[in-house]
């Protein structure tokens, strides 16, 4: 076996805090005691083969004591206004046919997840057969496979006032991995999106598209990679366009208002600057519960008996501060709001 990274002091405890903060109700460590025989001799444990209680043991012990002391809080409701749809059929479709050497399904999910996580927006990660009604914002990264029952739920969600965010390669193939003759992409979504995909392009390592901000995003420019859908708008407005003499009349990012809701389409793998700007607009207009914190400090709000508490986690090797709390490297705390 190859031995990997050793979590720094407090780091494994901090990760454990993170799990509980997001709703984990039962947590176990692998493994309790290191083995002296077999293939997993070097999967070190809370106690190693020397059988001596040392730092790792006392760190785990302190974690469980702190969770026991806050048991009622750990069992409180986890409320999320945003959901990210992690679609296994779409992931499988890209595995069969990547369409770009740069395509990584998990990375594209993270591209859309990251700017909301950065603002400490609590999010659920759900499959496409879940109930969407309880959320304000629905994130649908690279959901290339379209299914009628899911599309019906998305339409209902938007009609009820919700905000949906699509990215490129949305609704291209059906459940059997086939294209639909006679339909523009995104298939059966063009009225919802307020436009359709006119041209497509796959990028390689050294290729990027230049994106130019429009209207309220004027002055915000950036790059995009992996793939691009170039959109011809019908009812949507263009938030970003491509700086491209051949395709300058086609949109990169659009927003369509549809029956009381809003539909965004992000047509390429946009960089962090652009994704942050789009996310901030959605956060503000959807009145999401954003919490400002230093880079690398994660904050999760939980409520008990009408009082708010924060799970605060320092993911860095530096000392950080959240409001009046000092956090050592990789330290986690529960603090009252």
Please tell me about this protein's structure.
The longest helix has 15 residues, at 55-69. The chain is built from eight helices and 16 strands. The strands form three sheets. Strands 1, 2, 3, 4, 5, 6, 7, 8, 9, 10 and 11 form an eleven-stranded mixed sheet that branches. The protein has a three-stranded antiparallel sheet with strand order 12-13-16. The protein folds into two domains: 11-77 and 309-336, no CATH class; 82-285, 3-Layer(aba) Sandwich (Rossmann fold). The chain has 337 residues and is an alpha+beta fold. The protein is globular and about 70 Å long.
Concise synopsis of the structure shown:
This protein has 337 residues and is α+β, with helices and mostly antiparallel strands.
Q: What would the keywords be for this entry?
A:
three-stranded antiparallel β-sheet; 2 domains; 8 helices; Rossmann fold; single chain; eleven-stranded mixed β-sheet; alpha+beta; 16 strands; 337 residues
Task: Outline the secondary-structure elements.
Blueprint: H1 11-21, H2 55-69, H3 71-74, E1 82-85, H4 88-96, H5 105-118, E2 123-126, E3 137-140, H6 148-159, E4 163-167, H7 190-193, E5 195-202, E6 209-213, E7 221-233, E8 237-242, E9 251-258, E10 261-266, E11 268-270, H8 272-285, E12 297-304, E13 307-314, E14 320-322, E15 325-327, E16 332-336
Parallel strand pairs: 1-2, 1-3, 3-4, 4-10
Antiparallel strand pairs: 5-7, 6-7, 6-8, 7-11, 8-9, 9-10, 12-13, 13-16, 14-15
